[in-house]
Amino acid sequence: MKAIQFFRDSTAPGSAGEVEVPTPTPQGHDILVKVEAVGLNPVDFKVRPGEGEEPKTLGFDAAGVVTSVGNEASIFQKGDLVYYAGDVTRPGSNAEYQIVDERIVGKRPASLDAATSAALPLTTLTAWESLFHRLRIDFDAPAKNEGKTLLIIGGAGGVGSIAIQLAKLAGITVIATASREESADWCRKLGADHIINHHGDMPMQLRKLGMDDVSYIANYNNVDRSWTAMGEMIAPQGSVVLITEHHTHLNLGGPFKTKAVTICWELMFTRPMFKTEDMIEQHHILNRVATLIDQGRILATANDNLTPINAENILEGHRRLESGKSIGKLVISGWE
Q1: Residues 19 and 89 in one domain
Q2: Is-contact 305 123, C-beta < 8 A?
Q3: 1, 5, 9, 20: most buried, per Cβ within 10 A?
């Protein structure tokens, strides 16, 4: 089968190419999926192999059709249309076929094609887990959440685009950050109640909205740049969730200590990476969100589509993501 692999020192231009590799055979809870479309995420370029590392087949979002199943698989069968984010410890979705544990796979939305579906899994799982498993917001209790406020730093990105919509369905008032007018418009389209600029004085902008603080902060963007402001904006006994690496020392004391703030991390790869007892939660999340999409309660977030799936387009997708100016999600669909 064809696979697009990144080679050693993938910081260099043209360091990805098409190779032929054996088509894998599913065992245990695995299913074999014929990949029809892939979604790109910042994690793709962050885990490219460096000098001395083995070549990698990347890709952590996919939509496709099940072609065979392992001897312990019971959720899916041949012919099922699926979508998933995969496992960072296994070969990725930039290949004609991919092995994936069925417990982290969902039935893709019936109302969407493969390309639009492929934009969703990683960001959907990250948004859902960060809001409802880490911050412990109750999705099914909008009345209880009335008056609660959530600041989403990086509202126009892939995760923020889903999180805005999920938080609104949960009854939360959403303040999203965006630094460009087109990004702000995108956040408003998805339901954000207020927009502030993360390149400006966020606490001051928040006060201009009539708010001294917020109940929750979901930082999907730059932890280092916003850390001090977050300490000022979070409410006493509030909660903060982070998903990106920090590059400077973070002072966990100061206002975070005096306000007794809960600080937690979200990584959607944790469940498949460690085969946690509850890893099937990702199957349930993807199925639930597919239903919400088919009901018209959540908008799809694909905003850029390249075709076909080949090394040239994968590299172009990486370049666009690394620019830091992407809005929504970028997908690549179809094989030559």
Answers
A1: yes
A2: no
A3: 5
Domain span at 226:
124-265
Write the burial class of residue 272 (CB in 10 Å: 0-12 exposed, 13-18 middle, 19+ buried). buried
Q: pLDDT tens digits for 59-114? A: 999 999 999 999 999 999 999 999 999 999 999 999 999 999 999 999 999 999 99
Q: How far apart are the C-alpha atoms of 74 and 59, rounded to whole Å?
A: 25
d(CA 100, CA 27): 10
> Is 222 within 8 Å of 245 (Cβ atoms)?
no
Q: Which residue has the tokens 């999705």?
A: 139
Element (H, E) at 145: helix 142-145
Per DSSP, the residues of 8-57 read SSTTSTT-EEEEE-PPP---TTEEEEEEEEEEE-HHHHHT---TTPPPEE
Q: What is the CATH number of the domain that holds 110?
A: 3.90.180.10
Q: Which of 158, 84, 119, 60 is nearest to 305 (CA)?
A: 119
Torsion-angle region of residue 160: left (phi > 0), alpha (psi -120 to 50) or beta? alpha
Verify that 294 and 198 share a domain, yes or no: no
The strand pairing partners of 35, in sequence order, are 64
Contact 117, 106 (CB under 8 A): no
The predicted pLDDT at position 105 comes to 98
One-letter amino acid for residue 232 of the chain: E
Are residues 116 and 331 in contact, defined by beta-carbon separation less than 8 angstroms? yes
Q: Is residue 153 part of a domain?
A: yes
Q: CA quadruple 125, 86, 276, 274: dihedral positive or negative? A: negative
Spatial separation of the C-alpha atoms in residues 34 and 99, rounded to whole Å: 9
Pair 178, 151: CB distance under 8 Å: no
CA 264-268-269 angle, to 5 degrees, is 115
Query: In angstroms, rounded to a whole number, what is the distance separating the alpha carbons of residues 37 and 65?
Result: 10
- My answer on whether 102 and 221 are in the same domain is no
Tokens of 151: 């600041």
From CA 23, how far away is CA 155, in angstroms rounded?
39
pTM for this entry: 0.94
